[in-house]
Specification:
OB fold (Dihydrolipoamide Acetyltransferase, E2P); Nucleotidyltransferase, domain 5; 2 domains; five-stranded mixed barrel
């Protein structure tokens, strides 16, 4: 990831590419559709742009161009005036306030059951997705880890113990059939909420949607509300102006870091730890 700045010389709308002169060289930069839609009104000759882009260039039609990660500032000098069209510092301040909530933080990740490979949706035996594995880290406002918890959950739906799912999370059928019931996870989450009142950070919305579903499935009183959750992926997407979802481990590259060794092994505790790491990488990025 590099930081660039310069005055726009040309804009190629159909290619979603703009050109600047930087350090005695001409560079081309490529925008995603969402970035182009958002910034096209400002991207004209003479605009000064400050932005970050990936290190490697790619072939886009007749251009070799670098993908833009995010804009930092867009300004235009008109006479003695400087017009600021966009300044990420203003956005950073809002994100800082959101991430700087006082109190504890709970980083949570879940894995879910999957139907068998040959599952017939018209079958009399209905499949429904359940939480099958959880991983959680609690830290204080200074970033000190206070506690962690992980475990398997025995599904209610027998179809959920499928070869497809067992291969995905690398667990044996015997181990899952003898795993603790949902109540162990529920009580642990309840204790965390009662004693720490944490903000819960998740990667994407599936985890909190599944937790809401689990309360109803097991006929228990909800111990969390939507307001307790922060979708870290959505915050990062909004911050960088990215339209498509970002993989948890792809976020490390986006933030200029190497992902942990346990890349995508679909272990809930590892993914909860990765979410924690991404949180702090992003926190460092917006505090620069």
């Amino acid at each position: 990831m590099q930081t660039f700045c310069g005055r726009i010389r040309n804009v190629y709308i159909e290619d979603r590419i703009f050109e600047i002169y930087y350090k005695k060289r001409i560079y081309h930069f490529h925008l995603t559709r969402s970035q182009m839609k958002k910034f096209e009104p400002y991207l004209q000759d003479g605009l000064y742009v400050f932005f970050k882009a990936f290190d490697e260039s790619k072939k886009y039609g007749r251009f070799m161009a670098y993908d833009v990660i995010n804009f930092i500032k867009l300004v235009r000098h008109v006479g003695r005036k400087t017009i600021v069209y966009y300044d990420i510092q203003t956005i950073k301040e809002g994100v800082r306030k959101l991430l700087k909530k006082d109190g504890y933080r709970l980083f949570l990740d879940l894995e879910f059951t999957m139907p068998p490979y040959n599952y017939n949706h018209n079958s009399k035996e209905q499949f429904y997705s359940e939480i099958v594995q959880y991983g959680m880290y609690i830290e204080d406002s200074s970033g000190n880890i206070i506690d962690s918890s992980e475990g398997l959950i025995r599904p209610k739906c027998k179809l959920g113990i499928s070869d497809r799912m067992l291969e995905f999370i690398h667990v044996s059928k015997e181990k899952l059939e003898h795993a603790p019931y949902y109540s162990k996870f529920y009580n642990k989450l309840k204790d965390y909420m009662m004693y720490y009142q944490p903000t819960i950070y998740v990667w994407g919305k599936n985890d909190y949607l599944m937790i809401d579903k689990s309360f109803k499935l097991h006929n228990v009183k909800p111990v969390t509300e939507r307001k307790n959750y922060v979708n870290l992926m959505q915050i990062i997407k909004n911050y960088y102006g990215i339209k498509n979802d970002i993989g948890l481990y792809a976020a490390f590259e986006l933030l200029g870091a190497k992902p942990p060794l346990e890349v995508q092994d679909h272990n809930a505790l590892h993914d909860a730890s990765a979410t924690l790491e991404v949180f702090h990488l992003f926190e460092n990025e917006i505090n620069k």
